[in-house]
Amino acid sequence: MKLVCKQGVLTEQQVDAWIYGVYEGAVPQVSGYPIDTALRRVMELGDFTGKLYETKLLYPPVAAAKKLIVVGMGKQNEIDMEKVRGIAGSAIKVALQNNVVTAAMSLFGEGQLCAKIAAQAIAEGVILTAYIYNGFKSEKTELKLDEVSVITRPGNAAEVEIGLSKGTAMAAGTNLARTLTAAPAN
């Protein structure tokens, strides 16, 4: 699986699933018809509130993506790196359970955290959640998720790429430790 940074708007991405974060109690302010319409309806019905790590899979009627994964980001004034890591992990878990091959997500915490820190946390959350240990299995489980794009506004791309690179390295180290721990001592 690879993580890439793209500049632009989430709703313009041609992927299997969009991943969009919503703060608790916030009214969706999305510049994009498919997300706005689907999300408002679910929130009006009380099926999604934006509580931390809450997820909902939606199917937008007319969109460039077949699926919309909405993830709760909790209270806006309480967002930090650890929560962004968990938010990304929660969303990726839903993507993995629903056979998503390509996904695009907004840069969670943008505005509250610097872009580099937010991107690092996203990379760690995505990679740690997608970890599969196949050491002693005769039938290997393969990861279906091939690419995750992190969408940012113009001007942030360099910082986001640095954060994604650092987060990827940190998560790879953690996953190596997991693999070594799961293997026999001899």
Word description of this protein:
With 186 residues, the protein is α/β, with parallel strands linked by helices. It has helices at residues 33-44, 81-97, 115-129, 157-182, and strands at 2-7, 17-22, 55-58, 67-72, 102-106, 147-152. It has a six-stranded mixed β-sheet, sandwiched between helices. Strand 3 and strand 4 (67-72) form a beta hairpin. Helix 2 (81-97) packs across helix 3 (115-129) and helix 3 (115-129) packs parallel to helix 4 (157-182). The longest helix has 26 residues, at 157-182. It is globular, with a radius of gyration of 16 Å. The mean pLDDT is 91.
Task: Describe the structure in brief.
The chain is built from four helices and six strands, in the order ββαββαβαβα. With 186 residues, the protein is an alpha/beta fold.
* Mean model confidence by pLDDT: 91
Q: Could you give the order of the helices and strands?
A: EEHEEHEHEH
The main sheet comes to: 6 strands, mixed
**Principal-axis shape:** globular
Helix count, DSSP H or I runs of 4 or more residues: 4
Low-confidence residue ranges: none
- Share of helix, binned: 25-40%
How many angstroms separate the termini?
Answer: 30 Å
In which order are the strands of the major sheet placed?
1-6-5-2-4-3
Strand content: 15-25%
Radius of gyration, taken over Cα atoms and rounded to an integer in Å: 16 Å
Q: How many strands?
A: 6
Which structural class best describes the helix and strand composition?
alpha/beta
Task: Give structural attributes.
4 helices; single chain; 38% helix; alpha/beta; 186 residues
